[in-house]
Amino acid sequence: MTLLEALRWGRGALAGGESPDIDARLLLMHAAKVSRTTLLAFGERPLSTAERALFEAFIARRQGGEPVAHILGEQEFYGLALEVNPHTLIPRPDTETLVDLALALPAQPLRFLDLGTGTGAIAIALAAQRPGWQGIAVDAVKEAAELAKRNVARHQVAVTVREGSWFMPVRAERFGLIVSNPPYIDPIDPHLGQGDVRFEPLSALIAEEAGLADLKYIIEQAPAYLQAPGWLMVEHGYDQGARVRELMQQRGFGAVRSERDLGGQERVTLGQWRDN
Question: Start and end of every Release factor glutamine methyltransferase N-terminal domain (predicted)?
C-alpha cells in the first residue's frame, strides 16, 4: 500500500465523520512520520508493514470516536504543538479569539493570570507572542497542572504553573490581565454525549446554573486580583454573551464588549477594571 492508497482508504473508512479528509491525513502523517509536503509530493512511496499496521490501528481508534488529538498525543494551538491527554480539554481554534484579544493590548510588560489553564494553551501562546510578559497558569486538577508544566518546558516561555482552584494559588497577587476558558456548558446539554467531548473530562466542561456558575465566580472575584486599570477576558458559550456582559457591568467593569469566534458566534467577553 502506498501513501496515496492509504490516504484514500483512510478517508473511506472515516466517511460520515466530521472531518474524514483531515483526520485521515493527520493520522497517516503521524503513522508514516512524513510531512504534508512529502505526503503530497511522494504519494507513491510504499508504507512499511509497521507503518501500515499503525495507521490501521489509528483509523480503528478514530472510528470508535476517540479524538485525533488523543490518538496523536498532541494538538496545535496558535501555531504551537501542545501535548494533550484525557485529563484536559483539547485546545480549540475558537479559543484563539481570546488570545487575539489579549495580544491587542499594549505590548509593554505585564503579569497575567490564566485560570483553569488545562494544557497551558492560552498562557503559553501569550508568553510566546509577548516575551516581555510573565504569566501564572492555574489548574485545580493535578494531572492538568503537570501537563501544562511539560508544555511550558517544551516551549521555554515565561509561565509558572500552580496547582489549585481558581484564585487560591495567587492570594494577594495582582495582574494586569486575567484570562480564562472555564467550564461553561449546561450539565443537561445534549451535545455532551456527542463527538469528541465524550472523551474529555466533564469537570472541564460543565458548570451549574445553566453553565454560568464558574463564570459568575471569576467575574465576582477578579477585581481583587487586578491592577487598575486591568482587563478580564473570558470565553463562554455561544448563547451566553449577553448574560456575561450583564454580569461584568453589574460588577463594575467598564468597556465591556463581546467578540465573535471563527464561526461568527459570540465567544469571548472582556471588560476593564478601574478602581471605583
Answer: 5-73
Residue 38 labelled as part of a binding site: no
Residue 85 annotated as binding? no
217 labeled binding residue? no
118 is in an annotated binding site: yes
Write the single-letter amino acid at 150: R
CATH number of 3-64: 1.10.8.10
Per-residue confidence band for 208, with pLDDT thresholds at 50, 70 and 90: confident
Total Cβ atoms within 10 A of residue 160:
13
pTM: 0.89
The pLDDT > 70 percentage for the chain reads: 97
Annotated binding residue 229: no
CATH class of 74-273: alpha beta
**195 and 18 Cβ atoms separated by less than 8 Å:** yes
Do the annotations mark residue 225 as ligand-binding? Answer: no
Cβ atoms of 69 and 84 within 8 Å: the answer is yes
Residue 183 annotated in ligand binding: yes
For the chain, which residues make up each domain, given as ranges? 3-64, 74-273
For range 152-166, the mean pLDDT = 97
∠ CA(62), CA(63), CA(68), 5° rounding? 15
**Any known ligand binding at 117?**
yes
**pLDDT tens per residue across span 6-56:** 999 999 999 988 889 999 999 999 999 999 899 989 999 999 999 999 999
CB burial of 69-108 (b: ≥16 within 10 Å; e: otherwise) equals bbbbebbebbebebbbbebbbbbbebbbbbbebbeebeee
Residue 85 pLDDT exceeds 70: yes
| Rounded distance between C-alpha atoms, residue 146 and residue 36, angstroms | 31
181 among annotated binding-site residues: yes
